[in-house]
Specification:
Helix content is 35%, strand content 17%. The chain contains 15 helices and 16 strands. It has helices at 18-28, 116-125, 141-149, 181-193, 215-227, 239-247, 264-273, 281-292, 300-304, 308-315, 317-325, 327-348, 368-381, 385-391, 394-400; strands at 46-54, 63-71, 74-80, 91-94, 99-102, 104-109, 128-133, 157-160, 199-203, 232-236, 252-255, 276-278, 352-353, 417-420, 434-439, 442-443. The strands form three sheets. Strands 1, 2, 3, 4, 5, 14, 15 and 16 form an eight-stranded mixed β-sheet that branches. Strands 9-10-11-12-13 form a five-stranded parallel β-sheet, sandwiched between helices. A three-stranded parallel β-sheet has the order 6-7-8, sandwiched between helices. Helix 5 crosses helix 6, helix 8 (281-292) packs across helix 12 and helix 13 (368-381) crosses helix 14. The longest helix has 22 residues, at 327-348. The radius of gyration is 23 Å and the shape is globular. The structure holds zinc ion.
Length: 460
């Protein structure tokens, strides 16, 4: 018979919390009988998902016929059916023929004043259960994030940069635009006092339309952030800015190098410094992708995540034709060729890649955008589906915090799970074939929300 101690000793980088070990040891004292697959824990109060193929979000090989036992808001046991017998008590979900992945982590989002609940409902519906808000929290958004964290508003787990930095005349509107280094430091101190989770800055000319934040100001922001233990996320476009920001201590970048091909020296630096990129390829591509593929607009989940004014524009054939012919689209395509090559190169070099969809940027649908980023990383940048799922799993989670309890399916982790009806390793687009979503041990009531009110948006 199998050992009753099927909660294994801590291994890897996610130790099993002492509380769970204590439960396992206590249960191990109970009466036993010898039989194959004898339940090893009292399943009372648990939810067991049995029979799915588990893709655990670490990039490791899938486990077929897996058993995942959830107690309260945590994963209590995980393994193949041979290692982790199905408890007799509790709720058991027969997931044979299905595929289980961790709740998706999306490191790059923007939420709009008044549209927060709508955005979060879309993300929960799509299995996006951990998000970072990157620098555009205005109006009621900070208060709504507090409400979400208090459990009063349904939402993913949220980390936020509050309001981000740019040049005083830079993009986006509503950013912090310090004129001096001291002013920049004071603003970082204020953000730290507001208990933001990270600092965001935009370092880009936005196709030569805006001035870039000055290098000395960037360095002051990064230095002050480090003093407060706050990581920095930098939106970049140009290779030379990445070098300067790395000198200033920045390690995490959204988008990527889009102005030229990087050389071996850059690759070596990225490896040595442990850089990490969330490329937002889907966001870059959507400028022409929808115009070229209007059938995407037949997808209810895509439409539901767009603000009505934008949807109307996209539905207009003349508008779509104009998008395809515009000079800015031509320039974006050139930048896209560079950035997809860049991401491919980073991936081959083992540099960390994460999913950050830029959802809430003008053209990206919440929820759908995260799945589209997964698809684009695979289709256009050569990641394997397993790598892409790790980019929205453990890789993204470890970017948020040194000791994440989300982003992978393992003992002691948060019970954030997405059950799929089709194999995402066979076709990454199958991450959209969602059977059900569990957040913190609770199956969610899924559904596409109605758009609440008109609003504008334009951040990238
Ligand atoms: Zn953005």
């Amino acid at each position: 018979m199998k050992s009753l101690l099927s909660v294994r000793p801590p291994s890897g980088r996610h130790p099993v919390p002492t509380r769970l070990l204590a439960i396992a040891f206590a249960l191990a004292g109970g009466p036993i009988t010898c039989a194959p697959s004898e339940p090893t824990i009292d399943g009372t109060g648990t939810i067991t998902i049995a029979g799915a193929t588990l893709i655990d979000g670490t990039g490791g090989p899938p486990i077929e016929d897996a058993v995942v036992i959830v107690r309260d808001d945590r994963i209590e046991q995980v393994g193949s059916r041979g290692d982790v017998p199905v408890p007799e008590a509790g709720e058991v979900i027969d997931a044979a023929g299905k595929f289980l992945i961790p709740g998706l982590v999306d490191l790059h989002n923007h939420y709009r004043d008044g549209l927060e609940e709508w955005s979060w409902a879309l993300q929960l519906h799509a299995g996006v259960l951990t998000v970072r808000s990157l620098g555009s929290d205005h109006g009621q958004t900070p208060a709504m994030i507090d409400e979400a964290r208090a459990g009063n508003v349904p939402a993913p787990r949220i980390f936020t940069a509050g309001v981000g930095f740019s040049h005083p005349e830079g993009f986006p509107p509503g950013k912090l635009g310090p004129a001096t280094e001291e002013e920049a430091r004071e603003m970082v101190r204020e953000l730290a006092a507001q208990k933001v989770d990270l600092i965001k800055m935009w370092v880009d000319t936005f196709l030569d339309t805006r001035p870039k934040i000055e290098p000395e100001i960037r360095a002051a922001i990064a230095d002050e952030a480090a003093k407060h233990g706050l990581p920095v996320a930098a939106h970049v476009f140009f290779e030379n800015d990445v070098w300067q920001l790395v000198d200033a201590g920045v390690r995490f970048f959204v988008h990527g190098v889009r102005d030229q091909d990087v050389g071996d020296e850059f690759v070596a630096m990225a490896q040595e410094k442990g850089l990490s990129f969330a490329p937002a390829l889907g966001q870059a591509k959507t400028f022409w992708w929808v115009a070229e593929h209007p059938e995407l607009l037949d997808d209810e989940e895509f439409r539901a995540g767009l603000q009505p004014a934008l949807l109307e524009q996209l539905l207009d054939p003349e508008n779509r034709a104009a998008m395809l012919e515009s000079e800015s689209t031509a320039r974006r395509r050139v930048a896209y060729d560079y950035v997809t090559k860049f991401v491919r190169r980073m991936n081959e070099a083992g540099v960390a890649l994460t999913v950050g969809s830029d959802s809430g940027a003008g053209n990206i649908a919440y929820g759908w955008g995260t799945h589209h980023e997964l698809e684009t990383l695979v289709e256009d940048a050569g990641l394997t589906p397993l790598e892409a799922l790790a980019a929205a799993g453990a890789a993204a989670a470890s970017e948020v915090t040194d000791d994440p309890d989300f982003g992978s399916v393992a003992e002691g982790m948060a019970a954030d799970l997405v059950l799929l009806t089709a194999d995402p390793l066979a076709d990454i687009r199958n991450t959209r074939q969602i059977d059900r979503v569990m957040q913190a041990g609770v199956w969610l009531e899924r559904g596409l929300p109605e758009f609440p009110q008109p609003a504008a948006s334009d951040d990238q």
